[in-house]
Amino acid sequence: MRCFDQHSIQKRVLHRVKKLKITDFLESAVRQKKLITGSYIHKNGVRMSDRNIMVSKCCEKPVEDQDSEIVERKGWGHPDSVADGIAESISRELSKMYLKRYGRILHHNTDEVEIVGGQSKPRFKGGTVLEPVYILLSGRATTKIGEERLPYRSVAVKAAKDYLKNFKYLDVEEDAIVDCRIGQGSVDLRSLYDTQRRLANDTSFGVSYAPLSDTERITLETEKYINGDLKRIMKGIGYDVKVMSLRRKNKINVTVAVAMIGKEIEDMDHYINLVNELKEKVLDNAVKLTDREVSVEVNTADDYENEVIYLTVTGLSMENGDDGSVGRGNRVNGLITPNRPMSLEAAAGKNPVIHVGKLYNIIANKIANEIVKNSGNDVLEVHVRILSQIGKPIDQPQIASIELIPANGADLEKIKRDAESIANNWLENIEKVTKMVIDEEVTVF
């Protein structure tokens, strides 16, 4: 970044302000020396250097050039994803309640949801849930303002049950027990929770990367395809879908586990035909996403001779002993990627105002994808890591590290400048992420 004396900076900025006919307010602010740092005008007077953005060239081999790659996605009916979904729904509804009553989102973290599997007896043309699924809602929230007690438990339980209603074969009142044990947050953490100051409530980091590899895209889109278009045309497909993909050199094998719904299946022959049809359709869709060789296997644990198959009553494995927890499944980009940089932070259910475990993972993903998109084909891969420090402004991390793998012949210095600008813009406007979360414009699992 070029350096100028203060008088020179003022003249340059004022000239640009007048030339672009920007408002008198900006001109006044520049004269008061509130917004001048180098050749940039910054919101709230924060310099780009205060955001500790570091952009460098990465010397790692791009994942597409590595010999092998493993990618996993737990579908939205997997117990871990159900826990994530419930936690996020509760946080969102509490946020809406706080906004309606007080005009701001108060302290809460509802990222501690546990699912204890029930017991069921599935069969063709029907089946019975013998013991309900137990769902424990825990975490912390602002439960009282002055002498006014807030209906946080009612809001949390309703949010959880409304989310469970997405699974139409689950009788929410009969097949699930929702137990709310959300308590009051600690005094120290609540004192940090000031939406005007926006100070980090933890020392934590967010991580992401871009673009998705062929294997990652196939894994992500396969689950969405099964739980989307296929479900609408193939009765009998359940909600609990897990996709695990392995690439060896240029061959990708996709293993899919899909809970089948007994009520919609006549007999064993019908089940086998449904599995085979599903396999064909998934393969047809996957080959559209890559030039590599693809193979697909579905419900590989089935043993037709002994009639051991993946049959359920509700389309959810949690009906019969499968447990789930927040943060044990997909990362913010919807995948589990051992070949990539990842954070183990559970984003779902964390408050969307100052919890960097949520915000930094979201903006790291946004920054990475925007860098790749803006570069054309000049960036093969980008890794973003952002670290906070508790009690410090969330728009000024300890470091925002961006590592780039440029294409041959790319202008690295231009890419670096663009990457720094993109990261600065997201950090400068980090409050927008809060609204994106409340409006469900971003997903966290």
Describe the structure.
It is a single chain. With 445 residues, this protein is α/β, with parallel strands linked by helices. It is 34% helix and 25% strand. The strands form 6 sheets. Strands 4, 14, 15, 16 and 17 form a 5-stranded mixed beta sheet that branches. Strands 5, 8, 11, 12 and 18 form a 5-stranded mixed beta sheet that branches. Strand 1 and strand 2 form a beta hairpin. Helix 3 crosses helix 4 (152-164) and helix 9 runs antiparallel to helix 10 (412-428). The longest helix is centred in the N-terminal third of the chain and has 24 residues, at 79-102. It starts with 5 loop residues before the first helix and ends in a 7-residue tail after the last helix. Mean pLDDT is 89; it is low at 1-7 and 13-41.
